[in-house]
Amino acid sequence: MIQRNTATRSRLVAVWPGMGQVAVTAGYYxxxxxxxxxxxxxxxxDLFDLDHVDIKDGLARAGRPPASHLFVWKxxxxxxDLRVLIxxxxxxxxxxDYCRRVLDRAQRQGVAQVYTFAALATNMNPGDPARVxxxxxxxxxxxELRHRGIEVIEEGRITGLNGVFLAAAAxxxxxxxxxxxxxxxxxxxxxxPKAAHAIADAFARLAQIxxxxxxxxxxxxxxxxxxxxxxxxxxxxxRDRTEGGDTPAPVPDTASGDPAVPEALNDEDQRRVxxxxxxxxxxxxxxFELKRELDRxxxxxxxxxxxxxxxxxxxx
Length: 316
Fold this sequence. Notes:
Elements (H helix, E strand, L loop, with lengths): L9 E6 L6 H12 L3 E3 L13 E4 L2 E4 L5 E8 L4 E8 L7 H14 L2 E12 L9 E5 L2 H9 L3 E2 L8 H10 L4 E10 L8 H15 L6 H31 L22 H16 L4 H11 L2 H10 L7
Parallel strand pairs: 1-6, 1-7, 7-10, 8-9
Antiparallel strand pairs: 2-5, 3-4, 5-6, 8-10
């Protein structure tokens, strides 16, 4: 169920890949649960340098530059909307140009406030609640954060587009807010939906939009359980080796530049994926379950275009 308040300000949420997939997980969840549809995004491919080649049948071809995808929820009774921009990557350079180009389009579409989502790595334990921290581009925005119970970052820096986007918005007189979800510093390479849930909950309070967050909460609990179990196994293995006097086994190098080759889905996984595609095409609120399954199997990139096709059809 989605309830709307009486405010009439159009908003833009912008997210990019980062630690724990926190920002993009929150962005895709909003996109799914608000039954958004995709619209043409501002072109940003020319702001990226070529950094890889794609291999097909042994032949090398120039890789496609990262794209941005724009999803929209129309609130017709209030003549307002919510937009979610999901970028496939952040440019190595020209961050300000990127932000200005996105904001040019946003202003023409009546956007009066922008948000970015990010992760904040701390020494928290996996079982601890994920806190949300915030920063804003003006004092009124800070007051709103505090009013909604969001802890304000008093000092520090926000790197990348998450921070630059606020500065670019401020120079145009657009309020910018960054919400950062807390996650364990030792686990930044694994998905951490607990932080995405905390961000989505904070955003819903700020935007005064009611969104069912139960599925995201369940995902967060499942990942917390998996990570806790993995830590326990490592601790037990280390304890057994120490007590037995064995030399610890070498840790495999997972940071090499060798390309990962995804394995083909087995019949059961393939059937499950197809069933979820059918369900999501009938009900967009089911799309996040599909996204989660594709991520679990490590094949989202292989199915990304098909996934986005679900949102390219405008609702009746």
